[in-house]
Design a protein that fits this description.
Layout: H1 12-18, H2 26-46, H3 50-66, H4 73-80, H5 83-92, E1 135-144, E2 155-159, E3 181-185, E4 191-197, E5 202-203, H6 209-216, E6 222-223, E7 227-233, E8 236-245, E9 264-265, E10 268-269, E11 278-281, E12 284-286
Helix pairs in contact: 1-2, 4-6
Length: 299
């Protein structure tokens, strides 16, 4: 459909932007001016009706009304439209003279907790083993992207949903606090190992605005099975990411667009370990803090 902006007041948007006061800082002025300009252009392009505008107002109100300390519906809406994944890509793009890249980042999601306990290498994050849970020995090395040397004393933070697709604080009837959560430190050789579950695909909640939006878009609410990771060290850029089993049926249609090719992993059968039936080796490459982002900051 052709867009004819000539039939609208050509000065209206500039008048709104110019109303921003002199005490507004430069970055806020830049971001909000651009936001206003794009929102106005969107409304003109689609010739937004009064009913559609009010529907959007009610939708935003509903997002706030359903959110609480344990549910961040605004973040979930950002995920559903791909905004968090896009912001994550912008924030973590690393520029190098070679083809080497650090471990890809992915979205944090709403279920990270700062209260996960530190556990010793070789321990399990499983406090309640579900009947259909597949215990996995996960291990690997955290290394320097540039020197290739291992990084001792890196913090490896992991969290995941249980086999019913729920995280601990969503499921107090079946899970104790910090079930399937833990922080580990790499040893002198940059290595870590612990026991976790093979992850399970699950649905986003279907009782709120995110589900309303997905239905409007004729999309399913499923997330592929995944494990969340946050790996950090004082001398390196931290990475927050997710990893996904290669045989998951939702890899190409993840409802929050978080899957990247190098985050798809292979769980293999494990023999000789009475604690686990599967094994996953996952190595992480961190970029030194002095490496610059490929994107430049405006203002």
């Amino acid at each position: 459909m052709a867009f004819n902006s000539a039939k609208f007041d050509p000065n209206f948007t500039d008048n709104v932007i110019n109303a921003i006061g002199p005490k507004t800082d430069d970055r806020s002025r830049y971001v909000l001016s651009s936001l206003i300009r794009h929102v106005h252009e969107f409304a003109r392009e689609v010739e937004l009706t009064t009913d559609e505008w009010m529907m959007g107002v009610h939708f935003i109100n509903a997002v706030g009304q359903i959110s609480n300390a344990k549910r961040n519906e605004g973040q979930r809406i950002s995920d559903v439209i791909g905004l968090e994944s896009l912001v994550d890509e912008i924030a973590h793009k690393i520029s190098l003279e070679t083809d080497e890249t650090p471990t890809s980042s992915s979205i944090l999601g709403p279920f990270w907790s700062p209260n996960a306990p530190f556990r010793k290498n070789g321990e399990s994050i499983i406090q309640e083993l579900p009947n259909n849970g597949q215990v996995t020995l996960m291990h690997g090395t955290v290394s320097d992207l540039v020197t290739k040397k291992p990084i001792p004393n890196a913090v490896f933070d992991i969290w995941q949903a249980s086999a019913n697709g729920k995280y601990d604080f969503q499921d107090p009837e079946n899970q104790s606090d910090n079930n399937l959560r833990g922080k580990f430190r790499t040893d002198e050789n940059g290595k870590y190992h612990f026991y976790c579950l093979h992850p399970t695909a699950y649905s986003l909640p279907t009782d709120g605005p995110a589900w309303t939006l997905l239905q409007l878009l004729d999309r399913h609410p499923m997330r592929p099975a995944h494990i969340h990771l946050m790996v950090s060290h004082d001398n390196f850029k931290p990475v927050t990411t997710q990893i996904f089993p290669k045989d998951d049926p939702y890899l190409s249609t993840d409802s929050v667009f978080a899957v990247k090719p190098d985050l798809v992993v292979d769980f293999t059968p494990l023999k000789g370990d009475p604690k686990a039936t599967l094994e996953l080796e996952y190595n992480v490459k961190l970029a030194p803090k002095n490496i610059q982002s490929a994107t430049s900051s405006h203002l």
